[in-house]
Amino acid sequence: MSCDDILLHLQGYPDQTAESAIDAALAVAKRLSGRISALAVELSVAYMPNQLIDNMIGLKGIAQEAEQRSAVSCRAAIDYFHDRAAAAGLLNGVEVISADMGLEALRRAREARTFDFSIYCPTADGLDKVLAETLILLSGRPVLVLPRGHDGGLERVVVAWDGSAPAASAMHEALPLLRAARSVTVVVIDGDKRVDSIAPWPHAVRHLLRHGVRAEGVTVEPKGRSIAEALEDRLKADHADLVVMGAFGHSRLREIVLGGVTEHMLSRIPTAVWLSH
Fold first, then answer.
1. For every residue of 114-133, which 3-state class applies, written as one string?
2. Is 250 helix (H, G, I), strand (E, B) or coil?
3. pTM of whole model > 0.70?
4. Taken in order 82, 84, 87, 91, is the CA torsion positive or negative?
5. How far apart (Å, rounded) are the C-alpha atoms in residues 55 and 34?
6. CA nearest neighbour of 95 among 41, 149, 18
7. Of 7, 36, 95, 205, which has fewest CB within 10 angstroms of its CB?
8. 97-101, 156-160, 211-215, 244-248, range with the lowest pLDDT
9. Is 145 within 8 Å of 275 (Cβ atoms)?
10. Domains and CATH numbers, the chain
């Protein structure tokens, strides 16, 4: 997969994407010798006129204030991104669109379908679960989640390998990141999947070596821990900058559901996470 067309999701409400997060995303693009665009969504707040409620709490004013705050913050984030990306020679473009608050995640997922992958940086309020899940399950493209405080350095990478189709897809699509890494460890949690239903991890290591990735494999014993906990402990022990993993889950009408390990990694966010569904 090429990395000439990366998309960074910028947020303006309720919190603005931090400048440090934008810098981290640009560091990823530079590391991959890629180019990057940014998408900001100005939110519109549905308002049903009601004189009684307006007199009590000023609902119309609250809605207008939220919309104005979203617009101002989005423009500020876009301006910062544009200037920094252009100065670094990484700029593809910027786009600002409008969407009802309840449809923001779906609009972002639709826009992301025509990029190599998306970068999502949780804002000060933490991970927007609905936004993250929608991008992962409905964009059709990989998503790189950069947690707060991450500088974009991706030197030490763990590939969470369970031999499944989503894991294979995630590993393949992450090849540019894996080639650029200083160390790559294919980690298997013992007993995670039936042996006869998976691709063996030595084959995954062999595949990576053939693509010029400096990789090694290791099997981890759960020792009473859940699969997610065992993986998280390994990430901490390896001081991993990134974990590459397949995202399990499905979408239903008005509901988005992720698998247990995927949900754990997103809710805890111990490091950057590359997810492919």
1. CCCEEEECCECCECCHHHHH
2. strand
3. yes
4. negative
5. 53
6. 41
7. 95
8. 244-248
9. yes
10. 6-145 (3.40.50.620), 156-276 (3.40.50.620)
